[in-house]
Amino acid sequence: MDNEVDGRPGVVDQRSPDVADSDATHAKNCSACPDAKATSFCVDCQEYLCSDCTNYHQRLGALRKHILLTGENFPPGDPPTGTPDKADIIEKCQDHPKKEIEFYCVKHDALCCVACTVLNHEQCTKTYIPDIAEDFKNGTEYKSLNTDIDDSERLIVKSIVDVDECLKAVETLNVGELEKLRQYKATIIEYLDRREQELQAEMQQLHTEDVALLQELQIKLKTCQSVLNDMREKLKTHEKNSSELFVSAKRMCGQMTKLQASLKEMTKTIGYRQYSTLLDPKIKNILQDQNGVAGVELISGNIRISHITYYCQFPLLKH
To answer: In 43, 50, 312, 317, which residue has its Cα 20 to 30 A from 293's Cα atom?
Structure first.
């Protein structure tokens, strides 16, 4: 409808003299201002509006074509159905779950429904999402988001390979050092009969702790990888609908910031502790020392894998 009331398009007001003041008797309250009586109903937004909200509704360019029912056309009971098709916007507002997201606040970088624009962003610069969604899809921010996803995916894949290599190195190290211990045992069999179990337990504890940390890190990396795959799939499914794509992408930007920070911290912890069994050359004297035949020495913290190109230094893993 393009009926005009006081020069305002989209307002339907066919009042008869006996109902000219019926606005004041409406039992409905404004959807945005609960303490104010509603004087109109927006068919497009499915919202009851007070006089102030009605005026604001008519001032906002994107809402001027909405159909407002006033006067005797004001619905006294349940709101009328037949809202125009808005399949282009299906995401719901987080603050107002029954309202659809239609606007983007430039000042606060916020996704807004109609209620948000009235309650929280009345003085802000707002844009109608369908008017900017296609440009966003073709713009640098969306391309940057996809680039971040791809870069993070590559980092995860690379880190998983690094963790696998560390696990193999830990196993090789453990097997080799245990073999050295058995050779020591052959040389000083009587002493190592008692000491062997103590050394094995100490090395096994280091081995177990390192494997546990690396496996935990591996799980976290794969979880991040799964999250990225979900992001990529969601963006792909929304590419035919620019508005859905815009909303999904904007929400993902915050998630990506946190995910990238987590990835940065996780990659710093990739590595394992180097250790080696020792044998004192003065074996004859050491044989007289009940605790001096051999021991486990922690040579260093993390052993860097040669092909890792991260710029951060791996700190000593703390157990």
So the answer is: 317
